[in-house]
Design brief:
alpha/beta; Carbamate kinase; VC0802-like; seven-stranded antiparallel sheet; 19 strands
Length: about 425
């Protein structure tokens, strides 16, 4: 008998009734030899949460009532649909839904839409040992869990513990915690065939990434486009802390998988190479006094305001530093304003839109020839900014040059499959 598996299905896999049927058939086949009970964490249907959030704003004044409505009309409905499809595909009931109250997924925090996961507060093995069909006394094989929300440690709504969301990507985080609590292997089922070293949008037949350490995965997530994120960073950090391995696969090709495992590279470094890309990035630059406190003051403000940015480094000349910050379009003006009015003698504020291409390569020697290889590959392409820090190299190019630059770098650093 194989080790127990926890499955997680994202909204990208669940857009229609047929998708639920396909997922149910996949689960029954893939988990045929797995130990039971098998937990299945599901998100709401693709695009459903955003629609429900807008609807809830017009219905409820109390934010705790809003999140209660969104979860029950989104993830709870999705979980019930998945359970129903699993039972339809079997000759007897094999699935039932378990709620955040059943699992005791404890969360704390004052924001009903962005709580902090504490833990699953009991032993899942003993608590669900008697989850059998009450009439036929048949074992329940699948326990379907609504993602996105847990129950608050102290806050109550209608006499019971209030539902509280764990922020964007919460289903990933809950799946990690369920795997931790049940000592299970975790499979995250995605619509994409694999996690690729470079986006298929830029090159044909990119090489898949078969394995990563948590730190390598976090690096990729930091520099990848938001619509390509394969998991949320907080879930990776939780998995790393709890020593849970993450495996990604698709229903179309379950044999091809990508894996994030804290055990990788424990005794020796593993070779890893990826080329994440962020398009429509603004490089904000300005001259600031070169003392350490001035630069620290700027970065501390950005983090305090929770403004996402990537550090583009500094260039120091004659007692002044040119500071470079890469950010999304919608926060560029806020960063520029802060730099201009920081009272730290910031001047010559400049903004430029382009694409940030990041080469992550553990085989690179910081003192080696990767600069030469990069600029050789990009001959004829205007490089607006480049910098290297250990195994990471950033290249900032004009938007119109992005496809050509990515293809050239992917070819140079062997990221295209034969």
């Amino acid at each position: 008998m194989q080790k127990r598996v926890v499955y997680k299905f994202g909204g990208s896999c669940l857009a229609s009734d047929q998708d639920y049927t396909t997922a149910a058939r996949f689960l029954i086949k893939d988990a045929e030899n797995s130990a039971t009970p098998i937990f299945v964490v599901v998100s709401a249907r693709k695009g459903e949460t955003d629609l429900l959030l807008k609807d809830a704003d017009g219905r409820f004044g109390d934010p705790w009532e809003r999140i209660d409505y969104v979860a029950k009309a989104g993830e709870f409905v999705s979980a019930n649909t998945m359970s129903a499809k699993l039972n339809e595909e079997s000759i007897f009931p094999i699935a039932r839904v378990v709620s955040p109250w059943d699992l005791k997924i404890l969360v704390d925090g004052d924001d009903p839409f962005n709580g902090n996961l504490v833990e699953i507060d009991h032993d899942c093995d003993t608590s669900f040992a008697d989850l059998n069909d009450p009439i036929k006394h048949l074992p329940v094989k699948f326990l379907v869990v609504p993602g996105y929300v847990g129950v608050h440690k102290t806050k109550k709504l209608g006499g019971i513990r209030a539902l509280i969301a764990l922020g964007r990507g919460a289903s990933d985080l809950i799946a990690v915690e369920v795997a931790r609590a049940t000592r299970s292997k975790l499979k995250l089922v995605k619509s994409a065939q694999s996690i690729y070293s470079v986006s298929p949008d830029f090159v044909d037949n990119p090489k898949p990434i078969t394995h990563m350490t948590p730190d390598q995965a976090l690096r990729v997530l930091e520099y990848i486009r938001s619509d390509e994120q394969f998991i949320m960073a907080n879930a990776v950090k939780h998995a790393q802390k709890r020593n849970v391995a993450l495996e990604f696969c698709s229903m179309e090709n379950p044999e091809q998988s990508s894996r994030i495992d804290p055990a990788f590279g424990a005794n020796e470094p593993i070779e890893f190479r990826a080329l994440p890309v962020k398009e429509r990035v603004v490089r904000v630059s300005g001259t600031i006094s070169a003392d350490t406190d001035s630069v620290w003051h700027l970065y501390a403000w950005l983090r305090r305001e929770k403004i996402p940015f990537n550090d583009g480094g500094t260039e120091t000349l004659n007692g002044e530093s040119k500071v470079y910050i890469f950010a999304e379009i919608n926060v560029a003006d806020k960063i520029a304003t802060m730099m201009a009015y920081s009272g730290r003698r910031v001047s010559k504020i400049d903004k430029q839109v382009g694409s940030l291409i990041t080469l992550i390569d553990t085989s690179l020697d910081p003192e080696g020839n990767h600069f030469m290889r990069t600029h050789k590959a990009l001959r004829g392409i205007s490089v607006l900014h480049s910098m290297s820090s250990g195994i990471i190299m950033h290249i900032f190019v004009k938007s119109m040059d992005t496809p050509r630059a990515v293809r050239a770098l992917a070819k140079e650093f062997d990221l295209i499959a034969p």
